[in-house]
């Protein structure tokens, strides 16, 4: 009996030891039966710092909200990791044709200002998804591909990512904070149009050279992976699958899906994720399943592509702003030309994402506003800073000359999608003549507003002997 138990243990250890190499042999010798899902088991990691993410007080995305939904503009930081041999032996060296292949696979041929990757070609409905970014080659002391991936052990990732970000000037905090600092920087400073800077979202891609590696995998048998909701993904240069199968373009598209909260559709579990908290479609045969260049209905909803009322405005952005009008003081007033102030705020849709910070955020901005007096013609409202381009915009306007009496002032704003505040803000103000400093001031004010009663009051005062 004892010998039998020992034999079982030895067999178990042997199976565990050769399983990864068997998978690689399958990769090389059994191409027709190759299971592309193998390399992507558990490739979506939870950011270890997400639990300490602060609540965002504004409607615009905050520090941890760098990829809440795939609508708008996106900045991508491409970082080629180049080992210098100072700690690990340098077994990989980037050459320009390899970099060109990476850039083309990521949809960034020539590094143009505006990039088109695979996801932008699939965005056939909202037409509001553009990608921009920058590229760096950074020398580091380590050779990432010879170490385990962060799927099983993040020790080495912490070392080489921290070093790479320090070389780029981000040396505060741990490896995750450094990447978040950089990601937020490129979101705020990427040029989208000449002289115009800033995107809605951003993430970072660390590209690992594996062209000389025997199997093209990290030492634990894993390949590319990403942190769900960002801030980064790690993608080796070559995909170790058989010829004619998925390539780096498909791998990157899969990982970018994770960046925007799309879940794997091969794990046998129906997972809910994304701002709209939508389920994936297990076994879809699409990009989040077996890397096929299609998007399942579940993935579309998880990245935010939903338009319930078919008005060509995504549900996430199809909200209405709110208008606040500050009451005019003093009231009553002798002023006949009034200067009003107020503020306008875009309203985000409630964030139902079971993953991530869960902040209610929107990329909408205020687009303009109008006011009117006593139900008359609507007139333009001016933003206090001269431009409507923020999520929160103070405003001011000056009324025409008003007559004596009571007036109702109304104001409303619209957002950049043309959605108007359905409940305009209002203020009621009384205009009176110059104050008369006597106990009968109220009587004078009354007569100014009701001059037709003056003859009657004059007869009454004469009868009482007061005139």
Second CATH tier, the architecture of the largest domain: 3-Layer(aba) Sandwich
* Poorly predicted residue ranges: 1-34, 110-114
> Shape, please?
elongated
Named CATH topology of the largest domain: Collagenase (Catalytic Domain)
The side-by-side strand order for the widest beta sheet comes to: 1-7-8-6-2-3
Question: How many strand units?
Answer: 18
How does the helix and strand content classify structurally? alpha+beta
Overall pLDDT confidence: 85
- Radius of gyration from CA coordinates: 32 Å
The helix count comes to 9
Order of helices and strands: HEEHHEHHEEEEEHEEHEEEEEEEEHH
CATH class identity of the largest domain: Alpha Beta
The first-to-last residue Cα distance is 128 Å
Number of domains: 4
* Share of helical residues: 10-25%
Largest sheet: 6 strands, mixed
Strand-residue proportion: 15-25%
What does this protein look like?
There is one protein chain. With 467 residues, this protein is an alpha+beta fold. The protein folds into four domains: 1-34; 38-302, Collagenase (Catalytic Domain) (3-Layer(aba) Sandwich), CATH 3.40.390; 322-432, Immunoglobulin-like, CATH 2.60.40.650; 435-467. 23% of the residues lie in helices and 21% in strands. The protein is built from nine helices and 18 strands. It has a six-stranded mixed beta sheet with strand order 1-7-8-6-2-3, with helices on both faces. A hairpin with a 4-residue loop joins strand 7 and strand 8. Helix 4 crosses helix 5. The chain starts with a helix and ends with a helix. The model is unreliable at 1-34 and 110-114 (pLDDT under 50).
């Amino acid at each position: 009996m004892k010998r039998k138990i020992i034999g079982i243990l030895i067999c178990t250890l042997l199976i565990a030891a050769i399983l990864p190499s068997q998978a690689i042999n399958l990769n090389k010798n059994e191409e027709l039966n190759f299971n592309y899902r193998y390399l992507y088991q558990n490739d979506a990691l939870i950011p270890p710092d997400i639990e300490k993410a602060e609540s965002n007080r504004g409607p615009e995305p905050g520090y941890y909200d760098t990829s809440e939904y795939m609508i708008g503009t996106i900045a991508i930081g491409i970082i080629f990791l180049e080992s210098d041999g100072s700690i690990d032996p340098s077994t990989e060296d980037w050459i320009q044709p390899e970099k060109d292949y990476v850039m083309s696979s990521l949809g960034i041929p020539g590094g143009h200002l505006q990039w088109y990757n695979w996801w932008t070609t699939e965005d056939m409905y909202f037409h509001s998804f553009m990608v921009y970014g920058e590229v760096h080659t950074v020398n580091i002391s380590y050779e990432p591909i010879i170490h385990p991936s962060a799927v099983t052990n993040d020790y080495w990732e912490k070392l080489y990512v921290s070093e790479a970000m320090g070389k780029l000037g981000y040396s505060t905090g741990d490896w995750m904070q450094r990447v978040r600092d950089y990601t937020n920087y490129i979101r705020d400073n990427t040029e989208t149009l000449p002289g115009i800077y800033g995107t809605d979202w951003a993430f970072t891609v660390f590209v690992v050279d594996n062209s000389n590696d025997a199997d093209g995998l990290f030492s634990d048998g894993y390949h590319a992976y990403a942190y769900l909701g960002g801030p980064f993904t790690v993608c080796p240069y070559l995909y170790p699958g058989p010829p004619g199968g998925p390539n780096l373009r498909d791998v990157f598209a899969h990982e970018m899906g994770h960046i925007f909260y799309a879940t794997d559709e091969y794990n046998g579990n129906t997972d809910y994720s994304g701002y709209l908290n939508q389920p994936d479609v297990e076994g879809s045969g699409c990009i989040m399943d077996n890397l096929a260049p299609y998007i399942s209905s579940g993935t579309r909803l998880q990245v935010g592509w939903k338009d319930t009322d078919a008005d060509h405005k995504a549900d996430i952005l199809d909200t209405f702003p709110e208008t606040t009008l500050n009451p005019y003081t003093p009231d009553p007033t002798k002023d006949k030309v009034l200067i009003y102030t107020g503020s306008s705020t875009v309203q985000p849709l409630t964030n139902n994402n079971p993953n991530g910070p869960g902040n209610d955020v929107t990329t909408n901005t205020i687009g303009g506003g109008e006011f009117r007096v006593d139900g008359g013609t609507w007139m333009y409202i001016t933003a206090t800073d001269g431009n409507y381009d923020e999520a929160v915009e103070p405003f001011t306007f000056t009324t025409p000359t008003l007559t004596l009496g009571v007036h109702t002032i109304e104001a409303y704003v619209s957002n950049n999608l043309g959605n108007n505040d359905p409940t305009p803000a209002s203020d009621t103000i009384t205009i009176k003549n110059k104050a008369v400093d006597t106990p009968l001031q109220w009587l004078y004010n009354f007569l100014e507003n009701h001059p037709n009663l003056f003859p009657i009051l004059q007869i009454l005062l004469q009868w009482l002997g007061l005139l």
